[in-house]
Design a protein that fits this description.
This protein is of the alpha/beta class and 118 residues long. The chain has four helices and four strands; from the N terminus they run H-E-H-E-H-E-H-E. It folds into two domains: 74 residues; 44 residues, no CATH class. A two-stranded parallel sheet has the order 1-2. A two-stranded parallel ribbon has the order 3-4. This is Leucine rich repeat containing 20.
């Protein structure tokens, strides 16, 4: 457990110190997104465009994650169908291309808010 925590800390510190645009927390044995990350990254959240959380044990992300990392540019649409618990996705007011919009439409079984009017 201590080794996993140290690994996360190293990756977060590298992101801050090197001014990276991405944060890779893949394969870190996370069950949730660590609250401490928000404080450590507060000075660089606007610069982070990609966060990788692959190969963890997470079941959800808090709303704080999405309100903190407002500059994320990528959501792997092909992975959405592998998220059976996902019921709702708000992607309104984003400049999505037609391929992306097509990918998030059926056969996915969740509600998608993708228009500016909603």
């Amino acid at each position: 457990m201590a080794e996993a925590v140290a690994n996360v800390a190293r990756r977060i510190n590298a992101t801050v110190e090197e001014g990276k645009e991405s944060l890779d927390l893949s394969n870190c044995k996370l069950v949730s997104f660590p609250d401490g990350v928000f404080k450590v990254l507060r000075s660089v959240t606007e610069n982070i465009h990609l966060i990788t959380l692959a190969d963890n044990e997470m079941k959800a992300l808090s709303s704080k994650f999405f309100t903190t990392f407002t500059q994320l540019r990528e959501i792997p649409m092909e992975k959405l169908s592998a998220m059976p618990a996902l019921k709702w996705l708000n992607i309104k007011s984003n400049p999505l291309d037609t391929d992306t919009l097509s990918a998030v439409q059926s056969p996915h079984k969740f509600d998608i808010l993708s228009t500016a009017e909603a």
